[in-house]
Amino acid sequence: MSEELIIVQGGYPIKGEVIVAGAKNSVLKLMAATLLAPGSSTIMNVPIISDVTLMGEVLTNLGAQVVFGKHQVTIDTATVDSVHTPYELVAQMRASIAVLGPLVARFGRAHVAMPGGCQIGSRKLDMHISGLEALGVVFETEHGFIEASIPNGLSGAPVILDFPSVGATENLMMAATRAQGKTTIDNAAREPEIVDLADFLIEMGAQISGAGTPTIEIEGTSELRPVKGFSTVGDRIEAGTFLVAGMLGKGPLTVRGVQPQHLEMALSKLKAMGAELSVSDEGITISHDGIIQPVDIQTLPHPGFPTDLQAQFMVLDVLADGRSVVTENVFENRFMFADEIGRMGAEIRIEGHHAFINGIKRLSGAPVRSPDLRGGAALVLAGLVAEGQTDIAGIEHIDRGYEDFVEKLASVGAHITRKTA
Ligand code: UD1
Fold it and tell me: How far is the CA of 26 from the centre of ligand 1 (A)?
């Protein structure tokens, strides 16, 4: 069977300017949140990626009218007449679980398949479930489905999360907007996408304070309205990916469309690795000459170093002048990328959730396969500086989260194409 590949010739300078799209991890939740209020909502700065198309299908399947325009989507949820999300959709994208909170809040019921998603660790749902239970949701799980109902209504309550889970914080925040009384989420996730969702919900009429801090307070209301023209926050992970490309390809590369304060930890690591950075409202410009300094990285919930940039930054450590340790604290089993880049000559030893890296002078181009979305992007980055040609298979993973990745890289000097083998 033929398969589409990304083919990269390594060794060309990367310079110029790229504009990042709206954040995948925000827009998927904004789309789910439109379920909370009947009527037509419009979201702008929508990235054209396959996960967004899939979330459109999830909503269409519930009965919503979803119309995509150029970087925008209009979703009419007045016609929603189902609370059922089938396994075929949820299995393709774990973020489909974001409809759980809104469905329960608006219809009092949800019937959602247990998720699949990226093959990166166990990714359980216990915090979504126990948090919603505190608000009065009753769950049964049968035949691979989560059946949720609210026999005694939805009531605000204090919830303390075991871990600042992004998805659990979002589901709880959305459900709580329509609960009776006040919900407090302690140890809440603080990612910029949480703040974006809170801003969207506030435009819908929700009363939320504290988003972006560990304690979020939501006063429930029965009156939510559709939102017109909300612009999705810029994608900090796409921006971070291009900054690594700029560093590998020497730059200067300017990345626009992102708020630099959302990338503080990543920028400080780039600096420690030897990058020259200039940050302004206009964008972030990176250039680099000489050797890459090895730098240890530990992924942590925001404002810690994002797990979604772990693989991309590992490429820099692989080519650094010395040894480094990358520690993954958010997901189990998120080092599949290390095996693939090993095929290009990288020296990485995995022990539990630590990757011990011995920097090498150069990578050598090879056929490789994307293990997941961010690992796939990181393999493309490795191909930019590898000697010779790198063929990356499994690129449907990359298409889930990067709009025009190949075109954008080609526009800043990469010798890169898509080809059906
Ligand atoms: C979101 C992002 C993903 C990012 C991650 C962490 C989307 C669509 N995806 O994923 O790109 O890498 O945040 O920044 O926004 N966990 C439990 N029980 C739960 C919930 C989570 O054990 O009920 C665990 C997970 O298995 C994982 C960790 O907590 O090990 C983090 O998960 P979470 O923050 O919820 O990530 P997602 O929302 O799935």
Answer: 13
Which residue out of 8, 83, 118, 314 is catalytically annotated? 118
118 tagged catalytic: yes
**pTM assigned to the model:** 0.97
| Residue tagged 């990235």 (tokens) | 47
What are 165's two structure tokens?
A: 């889970």
E-strand stretches of 150-305: 158-160, 182-186, 207-209, 215-219, 230-231, 250-256, 276-280, 283-287, 297-298
| Residue in 94, 90, 105, 95 with CA at minimum distance from that of residue 35 | 105
- Rounded distance from Cα 23 to ligand 1 centre (Å): 16
What are the tens digits of pLDDT across the range 108-159?
999 999 875 444 455 688 899 999 999 999 999 888 889 999 999 999 999 9
For residue 167, the ligand 1 atom closest to its alpha carbon is 38
Best mutation site among 49, 330, 335 for ligand 1 pocket (most ligand atoms within 8 Å of CB): 330
Closest residue (by CA) to atom 33 of ligand 1?
165
| DSSP per position, 25-82 | HHHHHHHHHGGGSSSEEEEES----HHHHHHHHHHHHHT-EEEEETTEEEEE-TT---
Taking the C-alpha atoms of 248, 253, 255 and 260 in order, what is their torsion angle to the nearest 10 degrees? 80
Contacts of 10 (CB under 8 A, 6+ apart): 363, 365, 383, 384, 385, 386, 387, 388, 389, 390
Ligand 1 atom index nearest CA of 374: 11
- CA distances, 151 to each of 103, 104, 154, 302 (Å): 15, 11, 9, 36
Predicted confidence at residue 120, as pLDDT, reads: 42
Q: Is 127 in the pocket of ligand 1 (CB under 6 A)?
A: yes
pLDDT tens-digit readout, 227-273: 999 999 999 999 999 999 999 999 999 999 999 999 999 999 999 99
Residue 81, CA distances (Å) to 61, 64, 121, 402 in order? 9, 8, 34, 32
